[in-house]
Structure prediction request, 520 residues.
Amino acid sequence: MPVASPAAVKAVPPPSGRKVPCEKCPLRDIHALREFSAKELEFVSEFKSGELNVAAGTNILLQGTNSAHLYTILSGWSFRYKMLPDGRRQILNYALPSDFLGLQGSVNDEMQHSVEALTDMTLCVFPREKLWQLYRDYPTLAFDLTWLAAREEQILDEHLLSVGRRTAMERLAYLLLVVFQRAEEVGLTRGNALQLPFTQQHVADTLGMSLVHTNKTLRRLAATKTFRWKDRRFEIIDREGLARIASYEAPKVKARRPFI
Amino acid sequence: MPVASPAAVKAVPPPSGRKVPCEKCPLRDIHALREFSAKELEFVSEFKSGELNVAAGTNILLQGTNSAHLYTILSGWSFRYKMLPDGRRQILNYALPSDFLGLQGSVNDEMQHSVEALTDMTLCVFPREKLWQLYRDYPTLAFDLTWLAAREEQILDEHLLSVGRRTAMERLAYLLLVVFQRAEEVGLTRGNALQLPFTQQHVADTLGMSLVHTNKTLRRLAATKTFRWKDRRFEIIDREGLARIASYEAPKVKARRPFI
DNA sequence: CGACTTGTTGATGTACATCAAGGTACGTGG
DNA sequence: CCACGTACCTTGATGTACATCAACAAGTCG
Prediction:
């Protein structure tokens, strides 16, 4: 039975009162994100209740609990995952700077998934109870949230296609490609290189494969020389080649993506 | 290679001008759905551009195209799916009455998935260009859309866990259970029985398995006598038993679900 | 005209050989 | 100690082939 390494559950620390003013939000430098109007900026500043620094390995959200907070990632990597009672783990998606966490908590009493920090992170914290105010007074921001939810859905669709119907090679090629592209979008790459914070066990749990098989497949895929991955440093060499192996075509995005 | 039966692509007919007034919307009888205020009802009536009757097998939305319309299902079953260039098909989710289709088209230029009617259906049609008006003037409805998107995400999460980490038996038990529960929610069941409009090929493409293996697993699962399924008639006998086999726990929903 | 036969098709059920993926074990190197 | 790499054996899943059965259409005969 494929059982993931038992994740040590670290609880989240309380949010610090510290509030970097939103005008100086580091996310505003990211070109792929839309800009806020002065009025929006003012509201978001007010909406924000503080910042949170969490260490790698911390569980930001935990399956079976409820969270009074919503988060926007300011820096660092994390992943959403679910676990079965016997410890089998499925990683659902990775979350990078500008991604939004916790919206599902508005539908269910209890979170149906967990989120764990892959690296040290900084999070922007919003109280869930003010969410309604956002919908009432800031339709542009409300639309942004829907946009983000629909985008998450679209990523999950593609991921499900991978796990359900792509071969191990295809899956792996697809994952590496997509992760690189998403990191690139938010400025985490330097040229064709990227610091990849996850292990082969993470990859295995993302693609629904065993660790051993992931390793073997990774070796076979590396032989195509479409990328290099050694000691956390990932370098993409032949993007089109990877896409071809994955039989994946990147969707065209309609507009610059929003962030809250 | 597991290739789905080649789906004949039938185009959607143009929406009929016919508009059943929203006060008489058949969905309003469903207890699980929230009620609309008079003002909301008035707007939705205006938002609605017509109705659409489609035959089983019709593609309501098509991967790679863009759709000017959004749909709420008034009656009938359909499924969202993606296909790889060589014909491998992954069914992402089923859509039942009160479910909303097409929101992803607001994020991407082109649809990244298709939707096919499983049975004859009636759809309520909305023009996408009026969506912004809804966000601007009807925050409660905007919130409903977000709620629906978050719910879809939650279903996909669980589905991904299934395909990635559950065994064939568990997957199958999970699917049958969840489909029954969703049908029950919108009043499509009679006691413990349900008209199931899909074939074993659909099940296979949903769970990421081959047709043959689906059939064998279905036989083994049927031997547990937790359900009966013959000639489109599905009867659930031991719900808790199925849930135990699937190691699945149904999430608690926070509020009565909305529909547009 | 209706009843019966025949052929076709789609869905299901099963056998068997093959193969991709899993599990265990035991390396290495940092 | 943990992440990675690899060998070896096992098993779960696939692909192909073929059989059954019901639904349906077309054609034939009394």
Observations:
- The helical segments of chain A are 38-47, 131-137, 139-165, 168-185, 200-207, 211-222, 239-246.
- The radius of gyration of chain A is 18 Å.
